[in-house]
Amino acid sequence: MQTKTKTAAAATTEVLTTEVLTIEQLNAQIVQANLLIAQYKDEAKLKVAAIDAQIATHLEAIATLKTERAQYNIFNVGTKAVGTNTSNKKAMNAGVGVYIKGLIADGLSNKEILPKVHAQYGNDNTTYACVAWYRNKVNKAAAAASFLSQL
């Protein structure tokens, strides 16, 4: 009978030991999971900070474009359009780039910008491709500024 009692006691001890190890293993896994969560939160904060920096750069570019447009509009107050009655193509389109960049900064689409340019300058020389070229130029400038700010 003593042998059975010793065997039962040994089995109970073994079960308790196994349960203790399992709880210790679970606790270790919880600690490890908490460390990973903290690491992911830190990485997310860094990504948010990088995105915030990019947004700030783009906002600065937009502000610059708006300032350029405002300066351009000051010089053209009261005029119908720059060079409307001239045959010189260059004079007719003087300042169109600054005007287009300003409209881009205001969030207008290429299709919305084109009729405004035609109305402002009184010609059809500016095409959809021209507007797209200026938009690409603005985007490249903003991307370059963003890249430089990350250095």
Summed up, what is this model?
This protein is an all-alpha fold and 151 residues long. Helix content is 81%, strand content 0%. It has one domain (2-150).
Topology:
Layout: H1 2-75, H2 89-92, H3 96-105, H4 110-121, H5 128-150
What is the C-alpha radius of gyration, as a whole number of Å?
Answer: 34 Å
The H/E string reads HHHHH
Overall spatial form: rod-shaped
> Count of DSSP helices?
5
- What is the number of E strands? 0
Q: What fraction of the residues are assigned to beta strands by DSSP? A: under 5%
Give the proportion of residues in helices: over 70%
Q: How can the largest sheet be summarized?
A: none
How far apart are the first and last residues' alpha carbons, in Å? 80 Å
Look at the structure and give the mean pLDDT. 77
Category from helices, strands and their pairing: mainly alpha
Low-confidence stretches: 77-87
- Number of separate domains: 1
Task: Report on the architecture of this protein.
The protein has 151 residues and is mostly helical. The protein has one domain (2-150). 81% of the residues lie in helices and 0% in strands. The chain has helices spanning 2-75, 89-92, 96-105, 110-121, 128-150. Helix 3 (96-105) packs antiparallel against helix 4 and helix 3 crosses helix 5. The longest helix is centred in the N-terminal third of the chain and has 74 residues, at 2-75. The chain is rod-shaped. The model is unreliable at 77-87 (pLDDT under 50).
